[in-house]
Design goal:
By secondary structure, the chain is of the alpha/beta class. Helices cover 23% and strands 22% of the residues. The chain has seven helices and 18 strands. The strands form four sheets. Strands 1, 2, 3, 4, 5, 16, 17 and 18 form an eight-stranded mixed β-sheet that branches. Strands 6-15-7-8-11 form a five-stranded parallel β-sheet, covered by helices on one side. Strands 12-13-14 form a three-stranded antiparallel β-sheet, with no helix packed on it. A hairpin with a 5-residue loop joins β3 and β4. The longest helix is centred in the C-terminal third of the chain and has 19 residues.
């Protein structure tokens, strides 16, 4: 008998894996459609507390610096202090949301594998026991799979290497020579913070940074999402929505460019014990290499279902995996933004209800 009072295999209609934005949205809409938490569906989250990946963000990422945080369905986030760390603000918001709608998230629970089971169900192996389910909504995001590029000589570097996933804030880099790798939003945020305290900073990216001026409205958002969606539809690994929108040219970016902080160099060719070098003879010495090189979808637990296409991704129509209509991926590819995650959660819950043969029956209080 485990801590949740069952032994052997527990049978439910739906398992939701992940309690970030997409997972909570899906759970809300399942409950709104008449399914009962811990009876008809269960939400499993491996994080120690509410807040999804936000709870692991660095302290200097205050709520006022967060771009495009969209409220969860049915409950606005209001009155947040913009100077407070986003991890605290959003963690408290998600906690209140889970309690308000009685979503009964199980945590910390690790999901190790999802595979076919008897009777057309899916078997979900977890650290709290085994679930047999008719449908699965996977909302595991990307935070657990930081992408570390490999370069010749990487293991010889005498200094410190870390990834955005372990970024502690700028204070630890005071007086250091820091190399930031990556042209996305995180890379530029890290660089601008670290430049205030470091002995020196260098920025390298694979491609020339693209800056976006002017308004970014609904039409531009739809066009960006469509580019990501096209890759997913073709079974290719998704790119982030941010990767196709460019960097917003705000006042902070303008000021950093004027100071030379955002003077970019092309990617180096190898790493040396004391820094990095290019094949044209250039080299620089640094104390720290910070890899702001993004993340990949955390979907290894789905491997037994053989959902991947030859291109390396999972082909998805809407939110449903093409190779298995019982499996939905939310917060994957075009639904990785916070507003996209909300919409995907709603769509997945609606599709799952149809699969179960259950129409919309609005639950009391939801």
């Amino acid at each position: 008998m485990n801590d949740f009072g069952f032994e052997g295999v527990r049978t439910v209609d739906v398992v939701v894996i992940g309690a970030g934005q997409a997972g909570l949205s899906a759970a809300f809409h399942l409950r709104r459609g008449g399914l009962e938490p811990d009876r008809d569906f269960v939400v499993l989250d491996h994080a120690p507390a509410p807040g999804g990946a936000w709870q692991f963000r660095w302290p200097s990422l205050t709520y006022g610096k967060v771009h495009g945080m969209h409220a969860l369905p049915g409950m606005e986030l209001t009155g947040a202090d913009p100077t407070r760390p986003s991890s605290e603000v959003i963690g408290a918001y998600f906690d209140a949301y889970e309690r308000t709608f009685d979503l009964r998230v199980h945590r910390p629970v690790d999901v190790t594998a999802v595979r076919d089971d008897e009777g057309g169900r899916l078997r979900v192996d977890t650290s709290e026991g085994v679930y047999a389910t008719r449908a699965l909504i996977n909302a595991t995001g990307t935070w657990d799979r930081p992408f570390w590029p490999r370069y010749p000589g990487q293991e010889t570097f005498w200094g410190r290497q870390l990834h955005t996933a372990g970024y502690p804030g700028p204070e630890e880099f005071a007086g250091k020579r820091v190399l930031v790798v990556g042209g996305g939003a995180s890379g530029t945020q890290h660089l601008m913070e670290i430049a205030e305290v470091a002995a020196g900073t260098t920025w390298v990216t694979r491609r020339e940074p693209v800056y976006r001026e002017g308004p970014f409205g609904e039409a531009e958002g739809r066009a960006a999402v469509a580019l990501v969606e096209d890759r997913v539809r073709r079974g290719l690994p998704p790119r982030s929505v941010v990767s196709v929108t460019g960097l917003p040219l705000d006042e902070a970016i303008r000021a950093a460019r004027a100071r030379g902080v955002l003077d970019r160099l092309p990617m180096f060719d190898r790493i040396t014990p004391t820094g990095v070098a290019w094949d044209d003879g250039r080299s620089i010495d640094v104390d720290v290499i910070l890899w702001a090189t993004g993340f990949r979808a955390a979907i290894d637990h789905l491997a037994p279902l053989r959902l991947r296409e030859a291109g390396g991704g999972i082909r998805v129509e809407g939110t449903r995996a093409v190779k298995d209509r019982r499996v939905h991926l939310v917060g994957y590819g075009p639904s990785a933004s916070t507003i996209g995650a909300n919409r995907a959660g709603r769509a997945a819950a609606s599709d799952v209800r149809r699969l179960l043969g259950r129409g919309l029956v609005t639950a009391p209080g939801v």
